[in-house]
UniProtKB/TrEMBL annotation:
GO molecular function: S-adenosylmethionine-dependent methyltransferase activity
Keyword annotations of the record: Methyltransferase, Transferase
Organism: Mycoplana dimorpha
Database matches in Pfam families: Methyltransf_11
Protein name as it appears in the record: Methyltransferase family protein
The organism's taxonomic lineage, starting at the top: Bacteria, Pseudomonadati, Pseudomonadota, Alphaproteobacteria, Hyphomicrobiales
Domain called Methyltransferase type: residue spans: 41-135
Gene Ontology BP terms: methylation
Length: 266
């Protein structure tokens, strides 16, 4: 499996997305559900936002967290102090576990970066016991992330390359209304439910927003890293202008929506 998410440094990822994953983890867990003694598989653990939120429930039996990126595996393992948590490198589309090994399989902000997202859903279903739960959440890049759209719409106004970035970014897998639900049903899950989860992304100032992007983190950072120096400067100035919106630099808050889906293994 390949991933369309690029990561260079766990600290940079924390600033661009990990801190927001921590905010999204509790409502996602509420939606996915948990029960005492369960074995949980987390697919795509990143820097451990969902992993550690799960571990705050003292009744769980076992938490296995996997990620394709060794950077993320190392970061989550380093943060972990809970003996119930096991972290390992693995492919979401070829999970190294026997069928029916887990009570639930969860994926937070992962499937939209998996080119073969339906195969990953099928693998999650395979490793969960009958009656168990598969649940996932992905950002709504097109209609639910105004802070990120602020950048992609700005670069789309500047160049053809920016327009191509926007087309890719807004239509990644599983992001359209009903798309993930349809994929869950197609993979044989039953009682499939879809909902929206909302958090806010709060930035201290433009640098708090821009630093990890300028450092090359995530898909927006990859776009910036590919630009010539003069074009990077032009783009940063334009995005700064959009962030400030005619007011002095300072705190800004953006509402952000994720699609969440849950299904039962028959």
């Amino acid at each position: 499996m390949t991933s369309s998410f690029n990561v260079h440094d766990a600290t940079g990822y924390e600033q661009i997305m990990g801190r927001w994953s921590r905010r999204l983890a509790p409502p996602f867990i509420d939606f996915a559900g948990l029960a005492a003694g369960e074995r949980i598989l987390e697919v795509g653990c990143g820097t451990g936002s969902l992993t550690l939120a799960l571990a705050s429930n003292p009744t769980l039996g076992k938490i296995v967290a996997i990620d394709y990126s060794p950077v993320f595996v190392e970061a989550t393992a380093r943060r972990n102090t809970d003996p119930r948590i096991e972290v390992q490198q693995a492919d979401a589309c070829a999970l190294p576990f026997q069928g029916g090994s887990f009570d639930r399989a969860l994926a937070l902000l992962v499937l939209h970066f998996v080119p073969e997202a339906e195969k990953a859903i099928a693998e999650m279903r395979r490793v969960v016991r009958p009656g168990g739960v598969v649940a996932a959440a992905v950002w709504d890049h097109l209609g639910g992330m105004p802070g990120m759209r602020m950048m992609v719409d700005t670069v789309a106004a500047l160049s053809e390359a920016g327009r191509r970035l926007r087309a890719r970014y807004c239509f990644q897998p599983m992001m359209q209304p009903g798309e993930m639900k349809k994929a869950f049903v197609a993979q044989g899950l039953s009682d499939v439910a879809e909902t929206q989860l909302m958090i806010r992304m709060d930035y201290r100032d433009f640098d708090d927003y821009w630093t990890p992007i300028a450092a090359g983190e995530g898909p927006l950072g990859a776009y910036m890293a590919a630009l010539e120096a003069s074009e990077r400067e032009r783009t940063e100035a334009a995005v700064r202008d959009a962030y400030e919106a005619g007011r002095p630099d300072g705190p800004r808050s953006f509402a952000n929506v994720a699609w969440a889906c849950r299904g039962i293994v028959s």
